Amino acid sequence: MKILVSAGEASGDQYAAQLVEALRRRLGGVEFFGCAGPQLRAAGVRPVVEAERLAVVGLVEVLRHLPRIWGEFRRLEAAARRERPALAILTDAPDFHLRLAKRLYRHGIPVVYLVAPQVWAWRRWRVRLMRRVITRLLCIFPFEEPFFAGHGVPAVYIGHPLAGRLRPSLGKEEFFRKHRLAGDRPLIAVLPGSRRGEAARHLPVLLEAIRKLRAWRAMNFVLAASSTTGEEFFRQHLAGSQIQVVEGETAETLAHADLALVASGTATVEAALLGVPMVTFYRVHPASWILGRWLLRAPFLSMVNLLAGHAVTPELIQGQCTSERLAAEARGLLEDPARVERMRRELAEVGRGLHSGQDAMERAAALIEQMVR
Q1: For residue 55, which of 38, 195, 286, 362 is within the disulfide window of CB 3.0 to 4.6 Å?
Q2: In angstroms, how far is the first alpha carbon of the chain from the final one?
């Protein structure tokens, strides 16, 4: 039996790899192929397309990459037609995967969609396509199941894939010793985004904010690189900056940080689950922002604030994302222990809401096992 698996970015690659491992334990000799990043390839998924080639974000930014993305899309669709998998597991990346789901539906291939597209926040018209082409939608946030079920999409809440799994493998002293960090200085974790394009947009502002914070007091700064961006990409941009760069140690970096500067996305959920006070930020191309604001229907961009229903963490979006604001918000938190403690309590409440009572990927694997058997 063959199963197509496709993930277009770092978090999706991580979740899909966990699901593949759970399915191997249940189904035995299944052959997995598709669009795979580093973790899916390590899990034994045969790459027809490498996920790193699809990691682009923004309505305008994607335009110059369209020829390449279209070529990868056609290659993946051709492989699905040729190999006739029992089903396809598509993870996140809705601009790419909803189009692929439509093609797979035409070819009679059932689609399991992992990590629901955020149509409750923007582009709500997509729900009509989802209702038609998705066989089962696996939701990782608790409010999503009733929303999609109310719109006729067969959805089930499985819990968040990181809940219960996210824990550091190194203690604080060991982590500080490994990376030669000063034990008497606070640690600031820096997460500029999991794609090279978004990280490159954020780095100039982050570097200037870090310079301002360093002028205030001595601190450790550790940048946690995603697997799809890679450590070397940041080393080229940060030469001489005295910012440590690590790859594959996001949980450790966050768990031992006094504060995190985090690009809006999955990393904010990781920080919440680890109870790390944070300042969130995000920038896109100005034209993407103008177009996106017309489509956006959510009160917050940070998932942590959406889950809480109010502003737990500061959000510095687009024009507000300046080095002055970033440094000021970070300094305000570091100078206010009571505010930090209040934020930790609220983050813990958000984290508790992401547990479904069962490991998310084991629950997803059980549902898929029922489908293929």
Answers
A1: 195
A2: 11
